[in-house]
Amino acid sequence: MRHEMDLAGSITFDCEFDLEADRLREECGVFGIYGHPEAAAITALGLHALQHRGQEAAGIVSFDGKRFHSERRLGLVGDGFSDRAIIERLKGESAIGHVRYSTTGETILRNVQPLFAELSGGGFAVAHNGNLTNGLSLRRQLISGGAIYQSTSDTEVILHLVAQSRRGKFADRFIDALKQLEGAYSFVGLTNKKLIGARDPLGIRPLVLGELDGHFILASETCALDIIGARFVRDIENGEVVIITDDGIESIKPFPKMAARPCIFEYIYFARPDSVVHGRPVYDVRKAMGAQLSHEAGIDADVVIPVPDSGVPAALGYAQAAGIPYELGIIRNHYVGRTFIQPTQSVRELGVRMKHSANRSVVQGKRIILIDDSIVRGTTSVKIVQMMRDAGAKEVHFRISSPPITHPDYYGIDTPEKNKLLAATHSLEEMRQFIGCDTLAFLSVDGIYKAMGHEKRDAAQPQFTDHCFTGDYPTPLTDQIGEGAKQQLSMLAEVG
After folding, report:
1. Are strands 208-212 and 231-235 parallel, antiparallel or unpaired?
2. Beta-sheet strands, E only, within 178-247
3. Terminal C-alpha separation, the chain
4. Domains of the chain
5. Active-site residue among 28, 223, 263, 437?
6. What gap in Å lies between CA 323 and CA 364, rounded to an integer?
7. Where would I find the H helices in 180-275?
């Protein structure tokens, strides 16, 4: 489907009609457990709960007291780890796992995490959620010094830095490596004696500590603890390294103390609604964002409709605050995989209707308010609005429960370049015309902070990492300086 807009700074898009085609892509999810007799099976269950954070690949590494065992698969956790024989091959009482959506490196088996290497002190497996903003620069330095890379993932940097560290104890070598990293990360690592967790100094990416039958667990979100019946203990703090052994848990804080700035998109989109992130139930926060949006951009209408599934909590909050009925005007079929690629456009669009369809009885003749969590390129929004028009909507008012995305992300979210972000190249009115709605409004930056329990954004010391809305990047962007990100990525492909 081609959509063009004849306005200054316009973008031409080619896309299929797929409501999932223009979404922000999740980063990754990590999980680890120490000392449990069913470590691999529990890790697989934990990864199931974290599947929303990455659907390209999954992997588990276990340790049985003598040997490490690794199983990595492309595709979903259920596709790769439902066979009991696979779980039985992952012997041992400690394991770490990873679900992946690639933000650096290709979707090939050698990039699937956890990555593993035999180091001088023994084996070391590591899994990473986030993105290193100096990962490519470090890679160049390491390769020029003789390092031999096996993947094109930035995660492999940590293996080489640990291997090259001159420190004696493994924990010191790991911390030595962390101090050379820039960007956002939550790591889980496994050696022959310990399970390790680490968060970047600003705590951009999440990591929590849990406990099951006396055994400690590390996971990206609390929903992974819930699925296995584990108890939430606490969040791993920003800049904290935890080391779990037979003797218990040790906390090390090797970085200068800094105020935490967790990624605000965990609350807007990435985290599962039933997770609790830094003490805030994600579902409640999203409802509060919708309510705040109603206060800022209310309009008279007949019905509030969410864009499934991410817009549901915000739409509930909006409807309750506005006193307008909430209805499911778009029905999603959860049992359909990829849209069939057929030889003609008309048949392709029929295939898409297997995924999402308008609930005509709710929409026809109504003034509707559509609620979505964000707009990226805008191509999805065009199709959603047209779907509502085709179903007989009298008016379509689009409301977004986050501010306009005007800057790309470099911390583990797969966003387009700035010139492909609709809000970065178009005025609000131009965006409204492009999308085809009657009115368009976004939640303000201060409004999203109010929904998070703050009076407003503290410009001197922002409480969250919100660069996609403000351009305020909280760490150096080493790989984006000089040659530019495009050439850096091109070099990565050549090296890989």
Report:
1. antiparallel
2. 183-190, 195-199, 208-212, 215-219, 231-235, 241-245
3. 33
4. 28-261 (3.60.20.10), 282-470 (3.40.50.2020)
5. 28
6. 20
7. 223-226, 265
Report, in this order, helix, strand and coil percent for the chain, each rounded to 5. 30, 25, 45
Cα–Cα distance, 156 to 362 (Å, whole number): 51
Nearest to 434 by CA among 483, 398, 395: 398
User: Is 28 considered catalytic here?
Assistant: yes
Beta bridge partners of 209: 218, 234
- The residue type at 427: S
Instruction: Please answer whether residues 60 and 70 qualify as being in contact, where contact means their C-beta atoms are separated by less than 8 angstroms.
Output: yes
pTM: 0.89
Q: In a structure prediction context, what are the per-residue pLDDT tens digits for the chain, which is 496 residues long?
A: 333 333 333 333 333 344 555 666 557 999 999 999 999 999 999 999 999 999 999 999 999 999 999 999 999 999 999 999 999 999 999 999 999 986 545 567 888 999 999 998 899 999 999 999 999 999 999 999 998 888 888 899 999 999 999 999 999 999 999 999 999 999 999 999 999 999 999 999 999 999 999 999 999 999 999 999 999 999 999 999 999 999 999 999 999 999 999 999 999 999 999 999 999 999 999 999 999 999 999 999 999 999 998 899 999 999 999 999 999 999 987 775 544 444 454 544 454 456 789 999 999 999 999 999 999 999 989 999 999 999 999 999 999 999 999 999 999 888 888 999 999 999 999 999 999 999 999 999 999 999 999 999 999 999 999 999 999 999 999 998 744 444 433 333 333 2
φ, ψ for residue 189, nearest 5 deg: -130, 155
Query: Is the distance from CB of 187 to CB of 144 less than 8 angstroms?
Result: no
Nearest to 55 by CA among 116, 5, 98, 117: 98
Can you tell me the distance from the alpha carbon of 438 to that of 459, in angstroms, rounded to the nearest whole number?
Answer: 33
Q: Which two tokens stand for residue 147?
A: 């390092």
How far is the CA of 115 from the CAs of 35, 152, 264, 398, in angstroms?
21, 11, 28, 43
- Helical H runs in 251-301? 265, 282-297
